Amino acid sequence: MKAVILDFDGLILDTETPLFTSWKEVCEGYGVSMDPAWWANLLTAQAEPPEAYAYIEERASVRIDREQIRRTRAARELHLIAAQTVMPGVAGVISQTKALSLRLGIASNSERTWVTEHLERLGLLGEFDAIRCRDQVARPKPWPDSYLAVLEALGAAPGEAMAFEDSPVGVSAAKAAGVFCVAVPNAVTKQLTFPLADIILPSLAEVSITRLIDASRRS
């Protein structure tokens, strides 16, 4: 084992609860209830899905101003994200990785500036040896491109790395790259299933890198 690769949104920083909350508030404004599993599956793929607006219009039986909602909702989401701190267990994973002399990377479906600005705010930017994001590769997750790019930057083969992901889309990307993958669902993605994950853990705080290395060798 040479490297540990983390997703960013929903794993290092909880950006998915603010996204979910902002849409929930929009729905409530129109008297529309949310199906948590349906929305979780929708919002882990993209932040502004057309299906979300159609969902509200169909159930509220009204035409809505989509652009106005987009601006208001996005502003609310960013306000909520700004109040978030690093997720539980992240510091422990970083310290374990460093203690084992493993290299540390990020493979993200967000744009690089989004990831690096938040890492800098959290005081974590200098902890990572390589960061590869959706605007640095040809195809986003669930394609393996971001993982293959960060593996190359870290000097590790797929079988020499493990990944941590909070969504089925991310797990699919890691597995498509040939990387052992641990799913760590968050408050939103726990509604979903992770059939491709090698291991599922409730929190990064439950992670033992050495035990996971042993598990990856047995898989």
What characteristics describe this protein?
219 residues, alpha/beta, six-stranded parallel β-sheet, 9 helices, 6 strands, 46% helix
The level of helicity is 40-55%
N- and C-termini, Cα separation? 13 Å
* Major sheet size, sense and barrel closure: 6 strands, parallel
**Element order: H for helix, E for strand:** EHHHHHEHEHEHEEH
The value of Rg in angstroms is 18 Å
Number of strands: 6
Structural class: alpha/beta
User: What is the 3D shape?
Assistant: elongated
| Low-confidence sequence ranges | none
Q: Would you tell me the overall average pLDDT? A: 95
Q: Proportion of β residues?
A: 5-15%
Question: What do these coordinates show?
Answer:
The protein is of the alpha/beta class and 219 residues long. It has 9 helices and 6 strands; from the N terminus they run βαααααβαβαβαββα. It has helices at 16-29, 36-43, 50-60, 66-82, 90-99, 112-122, 145-154, 168-176, 209-218; strands at 3-6, 103-107, 130-132, 161-165, 180-183, 199-200. The chain has a 6-stranded parallel beta sheet, sandwiched between helices. Helix 1 crosses helix 4. 39% of the residues are buried. The mean pLDDT is 95.
Question: Can I get a quick summary?
Answer:
The protein is 46% helix and 11% strand. By secondary structure, the chain is of the alpha/beta class.
Task: Please render the helix and strand layout as text.
Layout: E1 3-6, H1 16-29, H2 36-43, H3 50-60, H4 66-82, H5 90-99, E2 103-107, H6 112-122, E3 130-132, H7 145-154, E4 161-165, H8 168-176, E5 180-183, E6 199-200, H9 209-218
Parallel strand pairs: 1-2, 1-4, 2-3, 4-5, 5-6
